[in-house]
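Annotators were shown the component list below and the corresponding predicted structure, then asked to write short factual statements about the assembly.
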Amino acid sequence: MNSKYFKVLLLFLCFQLVCSQDAVNEYLPQDINETEIYLKRINSNYINKIEGPFSSKIKKVFKDRDEEILKTIKDSSYVFIPEIKEHLDLILANIFASNPEIDTTDFNFFINNSMLPNAACYGDGMFQINIGLFTALESDDELAFVICHEIAHKYLEHSLKNVSNVIATINSKETKKKVRHVKRQRYGQTRAALSVIDGLSIDILEHSKEVEAEADSLGFVFFSKTKYSKSKALSSLNKLKAVDDMLLHHDVKIDSVFNLETYPFKSYWLKEAISIFDTDEKINEFKLSSDTLKTHPEINFRIKKLKTEFNIQDELILGVTTEISEIKKIANAQSIKCSIDLKLLDLAIYQLIEQFQNHKITSDYYYSTMAQVLKSIYQAKEQHHLGKYVPQKNSFSDEKQLNTIRLFLHNLELNETRKLGLAFCEFNKSNMENYELLRTTHEFFESINQ
Amino acid sequence: MKNFLGLAFICFLSVGVFAQQKSLSEITSFKIKNSGSFMDKNKDVDGYYFYYQVDKLKKGKREYAIKMLDNNLNEIATKSYIDDKNTVLANSKFNNQKLMFAMVNVKERQYKLVSFDRQGNQGKDIVIPVSKKEMKWLSFMVKSGNFNLLFPIDNKGFLFNYIRDNKKLGYGLKYIPTDGGKAWDYNSPEEIKEILSINPIEVNEEVVVALETSKKSLMSQTLKFKILVIDVKTGALLFEKEYDREENPRLITNAFLTDDKELVLLGEYFKKGDNVVKAKSEGIFAEVTSLDGKTISDNKVSWEDKIDAMMPEDSSGKKNRGYVYFHDIIRTQTGSYYCIGERFRKTASGMGIAAAALGGGGSVTQLTITDAVIFEFDNDFELKNITNYKKGKSRAPSLTDFGSPQLNAHALKSYGAFDYEFTQIDTDRDRFYATFIDYERLKGEKNKLAFKSIMYNEGELSEDKIYLQKSKGKISYRVLPAKLGHVMLLEYNRKEKSLDIHLEKLNIN
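Structure shown to annotators:
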């Protein structure tokens, strides 16, 4: 009797172990407490060094931001994938070894699950590389330049200087005088206050253009000491510029992707309602001049400056290099997985179609994952949750392709999603034997279509 | 979505600016005055507006901001609007050509109609001077619920409906064209002996159908109804039809203009001499009239002869129909009719009796509202089916113990005592969505508040349900009308003090 209970208990414990292993996911660091201690330590070290005018206000800004970062880590905004981290560490090791003057003691690079090709320096030693940077860039050299640029921000203490500058500006006698003047105004106080804010914002945005160029220059100095090809600094910026123009602009042809033999695409799935205003952009009679300024410096200006300063020559771009190709595959799949896990189902559909049509993912992966996304759409619609995760179409958005997908997803009815899901699985019946996921999704759609 | 190298870095700086400059952000925060939706006669929402006060200006003027969202909740415009400090935004509609706002200025005693074209340009304002009494009565009529202050006519113009004080209270119906047509006014006669009001209920590109109500005095509970059919182009009365108490008492719930240029009137009919407000109706009717006033058909279905026999028992097993309050009657594109109602009974109120025993003055009776019912009629107005939809009981104390249940039901309807919310009609796809709020009492489970929809599609009725409470009760919900086939869900998280607003499609099976 005892032995029987013991076996059951053992089985239960083994099951618990399997489950807990499954529960370990790539969205949390292995030891969250250790990460928390690290972030608090570097933040505290950094804050303790801050002196001078308005130091308490500056310290508060950095402290608040640290808490915000920790919250986003706990909210699964970052990914912790060993293969990508190891690859990144190799590049970092090369940069650090070539630039021994950089104090890297508190440095740590986190990978954010955003698909935007972007990176950031937080000032205290924490850096962020978006997964989108791995999918957009095509060599370690390009990635190394972006990292050098961010390290330059840290080396030049741009973060601290900018916060100090902003706080000094808004607490300056001149600003305070303007605010007092606004407060004394009996009429038109709000418009006057908006004008003061506008002036401050313009100063800050103009300043950031110079700061970015400065980080490019020092970043290039660090970069040029490494083994990486110098010309890739330009190709890196050129690629980011191209991606900026091209991001989410792949023509997904949704009416062709979901035009299935047993369930043809319906034209009303892309029917749009009449809008109140027939204008190309949002009407805003309270718009500030600073709203029209780009919130990032022109990459063209930076490329030109870098070329002139260091006499760098453009080089023919040869395509993806072998060392990064494996990481790109992982990053591509991870980017799709993040979208699905975060229930950004419109983005997941876009990524799947774009990556499949550009031969970045296999057909097995595409069909089984797309079927899984259709299942998630069905479940979200059934629970009346889809609107929480997938925004409605926005006529003024630049994201034309995403807009089409959103229009399609919101026009699609529950019973149509059910039929579409089944037709999609049936269309790829031949792949089912190879792919368990597609088979189980097919079974799901079969059961709800009965 | 844009990719900006160093974006996080910059964003963080801007946050710093605004976080530190609290006094400036306090000054620049707009004070909200009111908000609403642009809703047409089919309860289809074209968008939403928010009316803010921005600045105090000289000579008692104010700068206002009208922020507008499209029906997908995307911000499309923020317009500046300067007017007197006592200006209130009363209503707004869109007719596919223009957006019209009805502004009311209590101190200046005027209505102002402000329009914007589709490029967002403000048109010439239309000012209508009014007396204090007219304004007071207009406010009363709007609050009573069944009053269309501003009525859009798609691709043609707008109707503005207001009160005019002659010897007795009368009405004014002002037509404002947006297609280059002629403006006109249709007013109640100057020398009237009764109190008259009007409500436009149906329009097409040719005619306006309006329901005129008359009564002898303000306190009178005897109403007379008249249907007026007016030419949209000229404002000339084409014909009128009276439904008087002595000869033909009827309560008109809805009107439809068909593609065959016929007018279909739907509602309840009564015994000659009965007061439609107080008496129990004889049955339901569908009257078809040509646009020159000739009756083509007048079909009646009586409770006694037909409906009672087909009335299903309610969810508590009672066969007795009690009373049915009809909220809406819909005519589908195929010509069949659907009456949407709720069952109710007059019952004794335990609380009311206890209060009376203690010397209180409240009513000892109440209306117990139970299931939803949908009556289905074919093209010839033959009753085909009655479907009962289970719903939890709601109770509302009678406003008077001596009036009829019908009279109480009419009065309680304007207080929102019924569970019915609205019915949205999709003429393109020939569907309708009748919606209710239900408090479900479930065995072995915690009671749940649910938003229920009964939907008609391709000749079939189906149901959908959205629960409005999360398990831990930290999130409270509100459901508001949205674009066709959708609802707007507002989820307020009390713990995190966050508001999540999203649109969800109603699911048709």
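Statements collected:
1. Chain A has two domains: 30-272+287-310, 343-448.
2. The longest helix of chain A spans residues 189-224.
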